[in-house]
Design brief:
There is one protein chain. With 297 residues, the protein is mainly alpha-helical. The protein has a domain of 96 residues. It is built from 9 helices and no strands. Helix 6 crosses helix 8. It is globular.
Length: 297
């Protein structure tokens, strides 16, 4: 019962934070405040009533259109709200899984287990919120703001350090903290270095930029939260999804006409990396184990 109630509460909380994220995604690119003015239609400036601001429900009730001018609101609003709400719900469902809690209770006291699981849940809440934000910003504006990626790296490093210290097998908390910190820093540098290496090689071959520095910082963010194996899995998944998207563009005749052909079309790699990061966070260990077993390693 506690697991179900906790999951429902997390879903509702995620919907609320997803609604706020939509406000941020609309205003950040324009340099506007996310606090004032109140939520309003971007077309006619109609100020939304409280019942027009209920996550998902209002969009469905209004059939995706502004009550004032009838302009199309867009699919991004319900998708972002549902994504954040769903991911937060999955996080709590996994955290409260008895198969996860019981081994921890056998190894640690109850207060320590509570701290560990709270750190995990809060960390995943932050990570998924950041990844959804970056995925949309890159898809809509090809923009991965430094103040999000760099602060995300710092937050990931701190959360992983705290959790790694608490579950460290060593009797020395200092030793556990140092080991976790060094491993995290190495993962961050290696993940960012991978993108920088690919970027440099692409420049040598094509004499133009193929990846932005924002993608390198995003990979560093993924490594800070997921470790190097998780970040590499996210990168692999992102590249595959990007390739599929490129083939889909190739299949559309209109995209192949003119000088700006499909070969010169820009794809939001950051968006695919974020999706890969979510998949890696949720099922990364299972995917890696399944791959190693399939490869006979």
């Amino acid at each position: 019962m506690i697991r179900v109630l906790g999951t429902v509460f997390a879903a509702l909380l995620g919907l609320a934070f997803g609604s706020f994220l939509n406000v941020c995604l609309s205003r950040w690119p324009e340099g506007e405040s996310v606090v004032k003015p109140r939520s309003h239609c971007r077309t006619c400036a109609h100020t939304l009533a409280w019942w027009e601001n209920v996550p998902l429900v209002s969009w469905l009730a209004l059939r995706g259109r502004c009550r004032g001018c009838g302009s199309w609101i867009g699919w991004r609003y319900p998708v972002v709200e549902a994504a954040v709400g769903g991911l937060w719900a999955i996080t709590v469902w996994q955290v409260l899984d008895p198969k996860v809690l019981n081994p921890l209770l056998l190894a640690h006291s109850l207060p320590v287990v509570v701290y560990i699981e709270v750190a995990l849940a809060v960390g995943n809440f932050i990570l998924y919120w950041l990844l959804v934000a970056l995925a949309v910003l890159d898809a809509e504006h090809f923009w991965l703001p430094d103040w999000i990626t760099l602060s995300g790296i710092a937050a990931g490093f701190f959360i992983v350090l705290v959790r790694g210290t608490m579950i460290g097998e060593s009797g020395s908390m200092k030793y556990a903290a140092e080991r976790t910190a060094l491993g995290s820093i190495a993962s961050i540098l290696a993940a960012a270095g991978l993108i920088l290496l690919i970027r440099w090689l692409y420049w040598l071959v094509r004499h133009q930029e193929g990846m932005g520095l924002g993608d390198a910082k995003l990979m560093a963010l993924l490594a800070a939260w997921l470790g190097l194996p998780g970040a590499l899995l996210a990168f692999g998944l992102g590249v595959v999804m990007g390739a599929v998207a490129g083939l889909a563009l190739l299949a559309v005749p209109s995209e192949r006409r003119g000088s700006d052909s499909w070969a010169f079309s820009k794809l939001p790699l950051g968006t695919f990396l974020c999706i890969g990061g979510v998949v890696s966070s949720l099922w990364g260990e299972r995917l890696i184990v399944a791959y190693l077993r399939w490869a006979g390693l």
